[in-house]
């Protein structure tokens, strides 16, 4: 190759290398400029990210503190036995031989004040054997003594407390059940009721009772207190099996003015207890253990279940006790001067109750008694009462005509069972559904005479 061409190619190669180096340098400088520009643009965003990180850290710390506080608070109470509600959890030092409780925290999950005893099944006091309703242990409250437990509930809801109770020395013993604010002073309560233990409803010497309250706060203290003052400071009621249930008022059916007429909504019932639950006097239908209903009289009525009693329909019903002293009632919505029909199921609880069984029924200004007539294939019958409403609200009520007792012990109180209570406008096409066989025969006879 000629020398001139070699020099030319050499020059071109060197020129190419220099040009490439210059282009690379230019691109590098441009890249650095772009990075500086991006950095200048992102600088405020980086600051925002920094503050966002700080904010998220503070929020996490706040949530951690909230969780710690929530964890320290008692969990929301569930339906059923409250914590150590049967008193079968042993104290740290074991169950005392003499029953005496040494300090306010000796009963696990409960606080005590005054003379409080953890009694044992079969324990004697003089010549008397102390009654333990269920299990092996229960609590006896002496003069002005009390036990309490803090519960977390839902504000605005109605709760029913079920507990078993028995009296010991005194004929006129009673027990006060109440709820109070956690930090309330002694005697300051949100709701309270004295439950009379004077009447023995069965020969076993104890009964389950129910009492309801509306939760005005989310955190309350459930208190059981002996309000009595006896000569013997250890005398006092025995309590056991304390449970709670959040109640819901059933919606009123379109074809029935009665709320909870089938009695399916009510207090907590223990499956291993065959005595039902007594509903003592309660005139406030808004805070009733049997939603929609009130117990007007001095004596209780019995809430019964299909596991231990004959129930006309569903799983629950009401047994009327103590004659006129056991009245259950409800104010139902009506229209003045309009005809209505009150119908219900009447029957036998299957608890060996001595006949005759009869109830007095009220609907507005109408009253009529109905006798239960035992039938071969059924333990209940449908009966009804026509009435004309006089106002926008009409009282319907029931009580047992007789004071009935069981045939096997002649002492335990019993009575007729009612269920499926309905009140509807008498112009309804369903009017015939409320009557029993006897009423149907009566209608046929009238038609035949006409």
UniProtKB/TrEMBL annotation:
* Keywords annotated in UniProt: Cell wall, Glycoprotein, Membrane, Secreted, Signal, Transmembrane, Transmembrane helix
The record ties this protein, via SUPFAM superfamilies, to:
Galactose-binding domain-like
A Pfam family matched in the record:
DUF642
Transmembrane segments annotated in the record for this chain? 51-70, 431-449
Is the Transmembrane keyword given for this protein? yes
Among Gene3D superfamilies, the record links this protein to: Galactose-binding domain-like
Q: Where in the cell is it found?
A: Secreted, Cell wall
DUF642 domain segment(s): 80-245, 258-423
This protein is called DUF642 domain-containing protein
What organism is this sequence from? Answer: Brassica oleracea (Wild cabbage)
Give the source lineage, highest ranks first: Eukaryota, Viridiplantae, Streptophyta, Embryophyta, Tracheophyta
């Amino acid at each position: 190759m000629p020398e001139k061409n070699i020099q030319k190619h050499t020059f071109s190669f060197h020129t190419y290398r220099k040009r490439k180096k210059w282009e690379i340098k230019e691109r590098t400088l441009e890249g650095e400029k772009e990075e500086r520009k991006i950095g200048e643009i992102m600088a405020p965003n980086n600051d925002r990210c920094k503050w966002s990180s700080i904010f998220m850290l503070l929020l996490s710390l706040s949530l951690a503190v909230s969780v710690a506080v929530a964890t320290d608070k008692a969990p929301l109470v569930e339906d059923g036995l409250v914590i150590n509600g049967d008193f079968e959890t042993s104290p740290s030092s074991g169950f005392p031989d003499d029953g005496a409780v040494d300090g306010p925290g000796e009963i696990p999950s409960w606080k005590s004040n005054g003379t409080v005893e953890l009694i044992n099944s079969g324990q004697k006091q003089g010549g008397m054997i102390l009654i333990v309703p269920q299990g092996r242990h229960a609590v006896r409250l002496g003069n002005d003594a009390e036990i309490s437990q803090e519960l977390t509930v839902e504000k605005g809801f109605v709760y029913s407390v079920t507990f078993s109770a028995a009296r010991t020395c005194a004929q006129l013993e009673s027990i006060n059940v109440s709820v109070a604010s956690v930090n309330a002073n002694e005697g300051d309560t949100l709701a309270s009721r004295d439950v009379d233990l004077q009447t023995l409803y069965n020969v076993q010497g104890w009964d389950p009772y129910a009492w309801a309250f509306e939760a005005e706060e989310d955190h309350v203290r459930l208190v059981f207190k002996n309000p009595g003052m006896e000569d013997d400071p250890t005398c006092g009621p025995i309590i056991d099996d304390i449970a709670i249930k959040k109640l819901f008022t059933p919606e009123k059916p379109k074809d029935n003015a009665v709320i909870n007429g089938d009695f399916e909504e009510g207090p907590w019932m223990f499956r291993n207890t065959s005595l039902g639950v007594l509903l003592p006097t309660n005139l406030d239908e808004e805070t009733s253990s049997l939603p929609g209903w009130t117990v007007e009289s001095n004596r209780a009525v019995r809430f019964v279940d299909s596991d231990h009693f004959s129930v006309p329909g569903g799983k629950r019903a009401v047994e009327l006790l103590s004659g006129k002293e056991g009245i259950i009632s409800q104010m139902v919505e009506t229209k003045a001067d309009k005809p209505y029909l009150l119908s219900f199921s009447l029957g036998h609880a299957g608890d060996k109750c001595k006949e005759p069984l009869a109830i007095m029924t009220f609907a507005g200004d109408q009253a009529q008694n109905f006798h239960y007539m035992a039938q071969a294939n059924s333990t209940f019958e449908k009966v009804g009462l026509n009435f004309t409403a006089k106002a926008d609200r009409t009282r319907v009520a029931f009580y047992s005509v007789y004071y009935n007792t069981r045939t096997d012990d002649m002492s335990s109180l019993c009575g007729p069972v009612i269920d499926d209570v309905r009140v509807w406008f008498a112009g309804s096409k369903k009017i015939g559904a409320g009557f029993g066989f006897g009423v149907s025969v009566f209608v046929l006879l009238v038609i035949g005479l006409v």
